[in-house]
Amino acid sequence: xxxxxxxxxxxxxxxxxxxxxxxxxxxxxxxxxxxxxxxxxxxxxxxxxxxxxxxxxxxxxxxxxxxxxxxxxxxxxxxxxxxxxxxxxxxxxxxxxxxxxxxxxxxxxxxxxxxxxxxxxxxxxxxxxxxxxxxxxxxxxxxxxxxxxxxxxxxxxxxxxxxxxxxxxxxxxxxxxxxxxxxxxxxxxxxxxxxxxxxxxxxxxxxxxxxxxxxxxxx
Length: 219
Known about the structure:
Elements: H1 3-42, H2 48-63, H3 66-76, H4 86-112, H5 115-123, H6 128-158, H7 170-181, H8 185-213
Helix pairs in contact: 1-4, 1-7, 1-8, 2-4, 3-4, 4-6, 5-6, 6-8, 7-8
């Protein structure tokens, strides 16, 4: 069987796996983004124990491989009496991982909004929540959008690691095809091209969002 034909034959299975990959990434992003925002705010909280715990969480996640984190949740927790299925373990590991990285981006973006703008908003009668919503967050979003979108693109690729706990995402789908056909190059190449296509599409979305956020309003 030639390489092109093996790629074509593998496509139906790979596209099903790609759908699972996207669902995993989107699910982890939806769970991780609110957690990242809370962590970013908590690391600036006036309570030292909270700051220390959150700093430890971010340091641990950023200092250990994602694969090890997946193993800890899926294989390690049963030793403590907590058993998670592969789907829950995968989503939890991805969410906790991306939240730690995004919290750093969010914190830096919030800090980049000048204190003078906050004080000006308060002098105009805006409450703290209104200042955050109408003044700080829109500017922080423009600042942090590239890094946040890069996190999502990275998350698409990181989902391949959940294949080690038998989640049938894109990479695992390619492995199943290879186990049946004994033709590795075509399915792996097709999977790589699908990852590249998804990442490229997200890159286009990122560029469009950046242009829209930086577009000047009406005079």
